[in-house]
Structures are given as C-alpha cells and as structure tokens.
Amino acid sequence: MGDLRQLLSLGRKRIGIFLGAGAPASIYVDSSGAITVSGGNSLIPTIVSLTKHVIDHLGADARSLVNEVIHDLPPNPNIEQILSRLRAIEDALGKRTLDGKSSVDYAAAAKEVCASVGGVANAMLPSAPTPYSELVAWVGGTQREHAVEIFTTNYDLLLEQAFERARIPYFDGFSGGREPFFDSATVAADSLPPTWARVWKIHGSIGWERSAAGEIVRLAGSSSSDLIYPTHLKYDQTQKMPYSALMERLRNFLLTPDSLLLASGFSFADSHIAAVLDECLAANPATALLAIQFRSLANEPHAVSIARRRANASVYASDGAIVNCVEGNWRLGDLPSPAWASIRETFWGKRGSGVDGFLLGDFNSFARYVALTRT
Description:
Layout (H helix, E strand, L loop, with lengths): L1 H8 L4 E6 L2 H4 L2 E2 L11 E2 L4 H10 L3 H12 L7 H15 L3 E2 L2 E2 H19 L9 H10 L8 E4 L5 H8 L4 E2 L2 E2 L5 E2 L1 H6 L7 E5 L6 E3 L5 E3 L15 H4 L5 H13 L3 E6 L6 H13 L3 E6 L8 H9 L3 E4 L3 E4 L2 E4 L10 H5 L3 E3 L5 E3 L4 H10 L3
Parallel strand pairs: 1-6, 1-13, 6-10, 7-10, 13-14, 14-15
Antiparallel strand pairs: 2-3, 4-5, 8-9, 11-12, 15-16, 16-17, 18-19
C-alpha cells in the first residue's frame, strides 16, 4: 500500500482507471437525489435492481414477450440475459412468426428495454461532494507527464459532470460544437496535452446517437443512446466505430511500457474486455493491472482467474489478495511511522459486516484513498 500511495502521488507514472457498474451503485441517494448515509437507493442500481425496474416499467406488449423469454432462461435471469435472448429470437425469426409474434415485435421489445435502461443511467450527479468529484480533483490536482486515462463500461454521464463542475478539461473522443462527431484520428494519436484527462466510454454513452449518415454524434442533454448492451451482438458491434477505436485505445494503453491500470467496481465478467486485458498483459510484462474488488477472493472468480495466470495482474479483495500469482490473506504489518496510523484507516477497517477488512473495493473508499495521496 505504501508503494501504491507513492505511485499515485507522483505524476510520473502512466496511470489508467477502469470503472465498472459498481462505482455509481456505491453512491446512495434519497428521493430528492441528495446523498444519504442511511437508507436511500443506489444512484444507478446494480444489475439485479435494474432488471426489476426495467421489467416493471415496460408496456404490456413488451412485458408479455419478456415474460415468455424469462420462462426459457435459467432462474432469476438479469436484464442482459433477457435482452440477449430477445435479440437472438429477433435474428432467428427473419420473416417468420413465433406464436403470432414477428421479428418486428421482438425488435420493438428490445428497443423498449434499451430505452428503459438508458433512462435509469441518465442520472444527475449530486451537488454535494461525491467519489467522482474526489477522483476528478486528484486527476487535476497534480502536474503530470502523462494524462490520466479513464476507461468505463458505464453509460452514465457522472464522470463528465464531475469534470465540468471542477472546470478540468477532458477529451472523450468527440470534436465539434453543434453535433460533436467522433474523432478517431485524435483518439489514435493521443496528441493532446497531459493536462487534458481522457474519458473513454467503451460501450457507448447516454447522449450518443446515430446520425442520418450513419455516424455516431453526441447531443447535449439527450437521453437517447447508441449503446452496446451485453448481448450476443457485442462482438460484432465492437468492430464498428467508435467502439473499435476505443477498444484499440485500451489495447494501446496496456501495451505501453510502465503503465498501471487500476480497476474499481468492475467484475471482469465481461468476456470480451477480460480477453483484451489478458492478451495485453501476456504481451507486455512491463504493464500492470490492479483489480480492486469489493467482495472476497472466493466471490471474484473472473478477476482471480486472470491474476492466477498473469504475474503482472494483482487482485486486492476484502479478505486477501493475489500478487505475483501468489494467493494469501491480508496480514497487517508494523506501521512504518506513527503518521501511517491515519493513512491505514483509509484502506483498512470495519466493513458493513462489522469485520475488519480491506476497504478499497468500495468505490467511495477507493476515490477517497486516491484523493488523499496528494497529502
């Protein structure tokens, strides 16, 4: 932890941060959208809660098809599995019908599901300090040789709101004013100054739309989206712009020597991203992945699988870690100095269960720890 603190505090290391769905889910708000420490709901819910919300808010026709699909899936399917099956049936039907329903009906149901998911993801960042604002303050608070690159599979605009409120410039791949267009050449060249952070939305974002010419543009204030939802189509869609350019940006980062990618709130269950990470870690021993997970090692099989194969991938879980392919439980050592007593409290203490453990798997604690490396 001392080494990590030093790396984050200096501005010489090439650092990337990968944020998954666990980041916004760790922020709880009340009915007015204000942050609360007791009760409330996640700012953007986890997949289980999201699935219930989406199904409850579908129209009668779409819900009927979704309920039929659910009967053919394993128990308690999530919205990603449901959407994948809807699209699979849509493709398989062609011009035929199934129980009187055509591919058009299944396409309409899938579109309604996507719209509902997009509506949930279109959340406003609370005005009070949040983990996002603390993370952004750290990004803009240090003179750097290399820009911080933030990769995320999330569709929300929480990061963008945090950067804009702090007046810290960032580049997300789009250029222009009225209808910003995706500038793949600038993404590939990465020639902007290091004072500009990079925000790469690997699966797309709220506000992205396909223009009449078939290109992705970004519209301010738009709740519509042109997203890659986790379905059987994902591999095909990732070959299209801008997704291919953004995945290549992730590859380039990992293949650059002396790079460190910190993952927070990401389960590594996304197979095509996990494959890219695994491939690049194998090709470039001079890069490192640090997966900071919320649950115990036993409950993080996808991250653990990579760390057991790649010595340059480490997993820090609540009860233990895998470092250099060696697995073990946490054991506190002697404090290097009395001042470290307060520092240790930022990454070690009582978790929700009341048992002492590693805290940084919670995005709130992770962002606070990163922000405090400047002190």
